[in-house]
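Lesson 9: reading folded outputs for more than one chain in a single document. The general rule is that every protein is listed as its sequence immediately followed by its structure tokens, and records are never interleaved. Here is the first one.
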Amino acid sequence: MPSCISFLYIVKTGTQWRMLPGGFAPWQTAYYYFRRWREEGRIRCILSITCRSARRRAGRHGEPSALIVDCQSVPSARTGGISSFDAFKKVKGRKRHIAVDMQGLLWGLVVHAAGDHETQWALQLLAPVASRPGPSGDSLCRSGLQGPRRND
């Protein structure tokens, strides 16, 4: 459980794993459990439970009826991680897609190379949300993220 406290410290302060203060678990241990939990889907589960409970406390249904999806290109450092050139926005780096509900609660996040097309990643972002039981909702996004129209 001390590793879980380390996660919260990292999220709150934005520090690097190697810079964890001495009162926490060693950074290698904390990072090992974070990676393991992320791969097992526990981090996503914790996020989902937290969002649902926050919505219920606000007097809303646990599942959102609509999501807002957006994408942002951000420059990246020279080393480490994925990156490419977004010719439209003229940025070398990464793109991040987020899905939030009307309260601003985070329901999904995807980071990918800036040169990749946005539509495929927006669909990947919405896939876990769409597969959940609950109200069938809408997603609000720019026309570039909508992809081809379907005839329903």
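And here is the second record, again sequence then tokens.
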Amino acid sequence: MTRDIQPADIHHRDIQHIDDDECRRFQSSIELVGRRWSSAILLAMARGADRFSEIVAVVPGLSDRLLSVRMKELERAGLVEREVIASTPVRVRYLLTARGSDLMRSLQPLVDWGQRWEEPVGQQERDSA
């Protein structure tokens, strides 16, 4: 049986302090992956999409323009690297860096949670009708 925590209980428990640096880093990380499409782009890349056209194709609703903007942000954050392949025509691949791969391993439990708990968009529309 669970019990409600009363405000007075908080003073008697050992609550670990969150220092300013930890708070700032956590918030910055959440904001980075929380930007519209960023997480979906990283998920597509983690699942094998490495060309611009492949990423656009597997992320529903993502425009070319917004993918271009997000890829530049993800590159600056050190999560993605751009590789130009000298060929005719020139090809460009996008790869997760070690940092990006590590982030995706951290986000996988959230992907799993979403599969268990979030309803598909079509289901939400049917339920509200």
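What the second record shows: The mean pLDDT is 87.
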